[in-house]
Amino acid sequence: MAGGETLLDVRGLTKVFGTLKACDGVDLDIARGEIHALLGENGAGKSTLVKMLFGSLEPNAGEIRWNGEPVRITSPSEARRLGIGMVFQHFSLFEALTAAENIALSLDAKTPISTIAAKAQALSYSYGLPLDPYALVGDLSVGERQRIEIIRCLLQTPQLVILDEPTSVLTPQEADKLFETLERLRGEGKSILYISHRLEEVKRMCDRATVLRHGKVVGHCDPRQETAASLARMMVGTEVHAVVRSVDEGAGTADVLLRVDHLNRAPATPFSIPLRDISLDVRAGEVIGIAGVAGNGQGEFFEAVSGEVLQDRAEAVSIRGKPAGRDGISGRRRMGAAFVPEERLGHGAAPAMKLSENLLLSRHATDPGVYVGAFGIVRGAAISAAAKRINQMMDVRKSAEDPPANALSGGNLQKFIIGRELDRQPSVMVVNQPTWGVDAGAAARIRQSLIELARSGSAVLVISQDLDELFEISDKIAVMHNGELSKPMPRAEATYEKVGLLMGGAEPGHVHHHDPAEMA
Ligand SMILES: Nc1ncnc2c1ncn2[C@@H]1O[C@H](COP(=O)(O)OP(=O)(O)OP(=O)(O)O)[C@@H](O)[C@H]1O
């Protein structure tokens, strides 16, 4: 608990990117046996700070003391040697290898696989995170993959474990398991540095919190004494407004703008989920939410709807009444649709290109003539104006006027990509995980803008693992399980329990719902 002996003591830690102080004289101390939260808006400097603690970024100034001794952490292997472990937000596992083989890759020693497997299994059971070391990673759920990362980290007997948004990809049940494990670790006197945008879980789990804003520490608190709203206020500096959902006036009668009709898809790889006879209508004015545990076909469904993967039957996907199943992503965008994939870098944006270039790249295909004029001359002023408009609308925080996409913090890049699509006023918007890694203030803004887009006459389809989010914005909720989609339930009839049962694979017929008595 707080008050224990100090394990890590950081003074004046500073990291400068160009002219931006991503961390500006940060002080932080972590006691033995405490769970310490690191809070802050997108771009506040949390990732930059922990990268310095884990040796993957070099500070420009400041001091780190570990067990009272000044240290220089020059590489992740140096961090591990000291006893600092990290579980990353994005996993770095090979799908075609087993859990044990993946773990072996990160251990320098020439220990036989069977020994590693036995150790990993014993450790996983003792921490209540059971793991089959011989399972192929490709066959595992996101939650199980995270277990591998955690076990891999714990095998090196760290004294401090850093977790960067560990629950953003977990089901509520998996998150509960993780919390139990963290409590055990705390009980053993280990320390945990915990980054999360989910303030309720911070309140529940953490002993102390350090809050960053614009690279500086703006406060410390005991999260248990705070409310989610007061924590959000500390992070943002102002009040965070709740999302307002007006009634969908044309409920059930407006035009169908997106129709998915008996969509089937064979699995493309041994690890992907087949889609089984999915039909769904999304009408002008409404937001339909698709809930589901990660890895139940949501990614495959998004690819099929967006045109990243084509269908044999053109009618399998129709946009504004026109069969589009054989059109690619640009074709579907020209029909008035917009798509925001889950994976931002690479799919949502080209990492090394500037924001304005990213904008040009995506717009050139969809709005010919607007940004590129006669003879292929790029209309620089129009692009700059659009980029500026988007950055303002979404409050994108960045280190330069027009930085490359990979210099934005994760949440800010997500804000830019959503803003870029909203700026086109699409008739059909399909988004996968709209607020993944986004802070409370920005998440509220994104959710509100999706509702407003629908109410202005567009059809909005949102795939999300965040049930609170779906309940906040959806007019109807459907659940994807094992490649099948349940019938959308009107929001007024949907409960967490019903949706949760379907997510767990209950037969849709066994969950009671009527049709289509709208609407809350
Ligand atoms: N490699 C880089 N080059 C230039 N600027 C960077 C780089 N990495 C981060 N930044 C900038 O530093 C600031 C802090 O980013 P950081 O990723 O630490 O934020 P964060 O608090 O982790 O945000 P999020 O919650 O969105 O993950 C941001 O303004 C970001 O644009």
TrEMBL record:
Domain ABC transporter intervals: 8-239, 258-507
Main location: membrane
InterPro entries for the chain: AAA+_ATPase, ABC_carbohydrate_import_ATPase, ABC_transporter-like_ATP-bd, ABC_transporter-like_CS, P-loop_NTPase
Mode of membrane association: Peripheral membrane protein
Keyword annotations of the record: ATP-binding, Cell membrane, Membrane, Nucleotide-binding, Repeat, Sugar transport, Translocase, Transport
Localisation: Cell membrane
Entry GO terms, CC: plasma membrane
Molecular function via GO: ATP binding; ATP hydrolysis activity
Family affiliation: Belongs to the ABC transporter superfamily.
Name of the protein in its database record: ABC transporter ATP-binding protein
Organism: Aquibium carbonis
